[in-house]
């Protein structure tokens, strides 16, 4: 095959890839617009809710969903694919700060040691020595900041403060996204009751409950309000009933 033919095939392949991604973008936009005009009780994308730390018991197990959720409202059984939210990071941080175990001897670093057998970088570190240095500086600083200043929100002065995002299942269950493991673990061991989070996506059935509560409060449909009275203290409904 000549060089010219190779170049031509490469160009065709690039165009095909572009077209595929373009179609995906169009589908995403169409779905987003459909949801925009369908629902009246849509939450603002940057809405912050304060949730009970102990309410985070399950985490979303679907890694692909965590990367590609985009409409904010999703149907299907994705919320049933969960894992325990008490991860190796939570266990390791408890061992270090409560039991006084050196980082290298925690269950977390044993876990990292196994991962390094197949991975070149973990948290941008190339080996356990670099990782230990990172924990002794960055994670220790995070711990001290939360311990002395509380669990704070990002501000114009401190825009880099991270905020955890969650998903909400069909019955209102809070599902941890997996981002912010260190912050969540530190909040647990410091006895912090509530933390601020944003919601990346809600199950369609939960959104329908939001719609019903919205109608109950704003359209005088008392029967709907009564049906969901047991959920009215849910943190994701405060923007509707307050």
Question: How would you summarize what this structure contains?
Answer:
By secondary structure, the protein is α/β, with parallel strands linked by helices. It has 9 helices and 7 strands; from the N terminus they run αββαββαααββαβααα. 48% of the residues lie in helices and 13% in strands.
Query: Unreliable runs, pLDDT <50, ≥5 residues?
Result: none
Q: What integer value in Å does the Rg equal?
A: 22 Å
> What level of helicity do the residues show?
40-55%
Tell me the number of strands.
7
Could you characterize what this model shows?
Helix 3 (88-97) crosses helix 4 (107-115), helix 3 (88-97) packs across helix 6 and helix 5 (128-149) packs across helix 6 (181-189). Strands 1, 2, 3, 4, 5, 6 and 7 form a seven-stranded mixed beta sheet that branches. A hairpin with a 5-residue loop joins strand 5 (164-168) and strand 6 (174-176). With 242 residues, this protein is of the alpha/beta class. It has nine helices and seven strands, in the order H-E-E-H-E-E-H-H-H-E-E-H-E-H-H-H. It folds into two domains: 1-38; 44-102 and 150-241, no CATH class. The N and C termini lie far apart (69 Å). It has helices at 3-38, 63-68, 88-97, 107-115, 128-149, 181-189, 204-218, 222-227, 238-241; strands spanning 48-52, 58-60, 73-74, 82-84, 164-168, 174-176, 194-203. Helices cover 48% and strands 13% of the residues.
């Amino acid at each position: 095959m000549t060089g010219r033919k190779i170049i031509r095939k490469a160009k065709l392949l690039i165009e095909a890839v572009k077209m595929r991604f373009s179609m995906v973008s169009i589908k995403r936009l169409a779905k987003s617009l459909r949801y925009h005009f369908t629902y009246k009780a849509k939450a603002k994308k940057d809405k912050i809710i304060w949730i009970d730390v102990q309410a985070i018991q399950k985490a979303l197990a679907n890694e692909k969903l965590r990367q590609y959720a985009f409409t904010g409202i999703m149907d299907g059984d994705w919320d049933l694919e969960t894992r325990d939210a008490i991860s190796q990071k939570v266990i390791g941080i408890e061992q270090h700060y409560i039991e006084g175990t050196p980082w290298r001897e925690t269950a977390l670093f044993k876990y990292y040691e196994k991962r390094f057998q197949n991975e070149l970088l973990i948290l941008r570190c190339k080996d356990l020595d670099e990782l230990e240095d990172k924990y002794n500086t960055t994670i220790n600083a995070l711990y001290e900041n939360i311990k002395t200043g509380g669990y704070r929100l990002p501000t114009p002065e401190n825009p880099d403060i991270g905020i955890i995002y969650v998903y909400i299942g069909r019955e209102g269950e809070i599902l941890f996204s997996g981002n912010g493991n260190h912050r969540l673990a530190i909040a647990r061991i410091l006895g912090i009751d509530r933390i601020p989070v944003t919601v990346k996506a809600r199950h369609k059935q939960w959104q329908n409950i939001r719609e019903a509560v919205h109608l109950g409060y704003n359209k005088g449909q008392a029967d709907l309000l009564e049906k969901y009275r047991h959920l009215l203290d849910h943190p994701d409904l405060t923007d509707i009933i307050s």
